[in-house]
Every structure is written in C-alpha cells, then in structure tokens.
Amino acid sequence: MKKNIAMSMKRISHVNVILLLIFLVWSNRAMAKDAVSPAGSFLISLSGGMQYGPRTTFFDGKEKFYFAQGDTIDDKSKTGVGVFELHLQDKEVAELRDVAKAFCDKAVPEKGDPFQPQVTFQVACEDNEGLTSKYGSMNYVPEDIKRRIYGVARVFEDRAWSEGRKVVKLDFSTTKVEYKDNGFIVSVRFYNSGDQTIRFKTPDQLRGNEAGGQLGVGSRTRIGRNGSRAEIEGGWAFSLSGKEILNKDEFPDGIVTLRPGEDKTLRVRSVSDYKASKGEYEFTGIAFMDIQCEGKWWTNTRVDFSPIKTPVTIDRDYPSTPKEREEWEARHRAAMSSWPVKPGEAFPEDGLYRAVRVGSGTRSLQVQPFKAGDIATTDNVRLLTDAASGNHLDGPVQWVWEASPPVHPEWKPFTVEEGTEQFCKPGAMCSRSGRWVARSVTWDWKHELDLAQIVTARQGETMPAIKGDLRQAEWEWIGA
Q1: pLDDT in tens, 351-362
Q2: Which domains does the chain carry?
Q3: Residue 339: which region, alpha, beta or left (left: phi > 0; alpha: psi -120 to 50)?
C-alpha cells in the first residue's frame, strides 16, 4: 500500500511539474506579444526545472550579448555558475542578427513542445506587417537551421564566459580538512566575483539530494611528491548537506550574503563516506542550491555547479579507530544492502558477506570472508539460518556485504589488525560490537557452533567465558 501511494504521489508530482512549466512557457509567450523587443533580438532558454540550473542565451538586437549558465556539473572546462555580458562590434552584431533571421524563417514553426516545454526560443521578427514576436520549441526547429543557430551561439557563449563582464559569478572551493574533537571539520569558501549581491541558504538546511539541495566535496585524485596526479579507488567524500555548521553565528537567519568581490568560509562537521588514506589530494565537489541575486538576472534560481579544484592535505586515515570503523561499516552496510552479489557474479570488494536465500530471503547466521573479484558460487549452499533455531537455508544464495574482513598487516601477516578480528577468545577484549556465537573444535577437527550460547558485546568489553567442557572454544562474530 505504501509503495503504491508513493508511486502515485511521484506521478502526480511529475504531472504538476510539467503543467507548471507549460503554464510558465505560455505565460511568457503572452507577455512577449505585449512587449516586443527590438528587431533582431532573440533568446534561447533551457530551463533546468526542479533539479538543474538554467542556460540562457540572449542578444538584445543592438550591441550586447548575454550568456547565463546555471549548470556546470558535467562541464569539465567550467566551474561555478554565472551571467556574462559581452559588448559587440558591428560585424558581431551582424552575425547575431543573421541568427535571428534564421529563427524568423517560415520553416521554423511557432509551436511549443508539451513534453519538453523548457527548451524554447523567442525572437523579434520584422516583415511587411511590422514587428512581431515569435515563440516556439527548439525541438521543432529544422536540423539544418538548428546547426547554424547553435554554431554561432556557442562561439559567443564561450567568449562571453571567458571575456565578458561578470554580471553574476559564484564559485566555491575546499580550503581545509582537519580532524578535531573526534571528527572532521571541512572548510569550504564561496566566492562572488560578479557585480551583483548573491544570497543562499546555509548547507545545514539542504536535504542532501538534487531536488532538496545538496553540497558535498571530496577527491579520488591523489597528489604525489612530484606533483603528479593519480586516480585511486575509494578516496575522500564529505557530504555537507544537513550537517552542523560550526561558525553559523556568522550567517544571520541562516543566509549567506556575498557582496560583489566578497568571499566567506563555512566550517562544517562531517565524516567521510569512504575509506581513505592520509595524504595530499585534489579536491572537487558538487553543489545543488537555490541562489538569489539582486538585479534582473536570477532573482531566485536553482543552480548546480562544480567547484574550483584545490589541493588539500589530510593527516590521518579514515577509519583510524575501531569506533570509526563501526560507524563507517553501519553506513556502508546500508548503502550496499541494495546491491547483493548474485550467483556467478564477482564480489565488488573485500568484506564479510552474509548469505541470503534466493526466493525466500532467509538470511544466514554466519558471515563469510570474500575478496574483490571472487566469484559467487552457483551451487546450492547449506548454512544455519539467522533465527538460530537449528534450521538451515539450503539452496541458491546471493550475498550482502556485512562488515570489513579481517585485515592482516603486510609487516605482520599472521596477526589481525585491531577491530577487524572475526574470532575472539573468552576473557579477551571484544574486537567488534555485535553478536557472537560460541564455537569449538570437534574430535575430527571441525568447528561446531553452540546456538544456546549467543551473546551481544560491545567493542572494548571483556568477552565472557564459554560454558561446558569445550576444547579450543572461542567466540565467532556473526553480525552487528
């Protein structure tokens, strides 16, 4: 029932978004008819809707060209977002008026697209009847005309971004990551290099997704001693959405206000989503947020953008303590729960995995270690069920990640790194928080579990004694 309601609400929301965009498009069209721009002026608009930033190209028909880009997530040549103004020479004015004439061509229909109402054009055309405004969808512009239009427009857009006056320009970068008071503090600096004041909410008010706003930084590029860059597995990743801001008193009412030429730093407490090693890294990130600008551009606009890349040094590994490992494992276990390893598939990473019976969903009591690249068996598997009733799951299984595997340091191959042990002796310090089952060695040197002796212990506590006259008895960890 809940799933059906959620799906229905999603469909209703999607329809509402489309209806809203159609209303805005045709409202703009009606207003354009009443306020015709100078002959030869045109506007190409790509609205990002509820998630992505807008992209607008505007020629005033006289001497100025404007380019506004509010989406640079997938643009490797640009950072930040902004609106740029380019002053034109006579030859350039003529080139752009030719673009307007292409829009005014009778082969270009004045027709909206109800399925993609956000991709539009508007142009002021002059003919024997005088000045008229033409409005339509870029999707219905003939391909040969569209290529001519975009061929010219893209050249001026690139020039406006690199050479034009910055009407609006917002950037950010990671300036520091430090470990303090049992956690990481990430410092991010926002820069306003444009001519208009910019305002936006502090990231603790963001919901952590594209629709509700998101801010995060991290790196998978390690910087070597000679300045070389190398891509690595894992890396650092800090989500800053909804997290505590340590200097929030500097931002009254939860609003960051950046006047022209101003920059401000936010210090946010966070944890890394991934395991990572200390060192110097090239940090990047992502931002989805609403900004308000003074002036006629972007009075209230959703933008998404990449930051300026910066080198950041982190002086400790993560996780570095058993407590940090447990916290990381809990988050990683939840993330991996939706990605079981099916029979015949390769395990994506090292770990202790729990078997789940295909079809019934019954889970195993014990966890087993696998290495990245190992292939999950296609044979039937017989293991005790997690109900600890003595019953077995017997059949094909898939595997879900449960925890980090025992780690054997290279310099001590016969020892296990603290906090990763899977077995523990009675009276020893508990290595992992969670449930433990007693096991002993049988006469034929096999292991036998005592399901009557299952205990819960926290890391650092003393493991209890094992009842009975059991040879070489020890505790086996069976999950958090």
Answers
A1: 999 999 999 999
A2: 2-163 (3.30.1560), 169-314 (2.60.40), 320-405 (no CATH), 408-480 (no CATH)
A3: beta
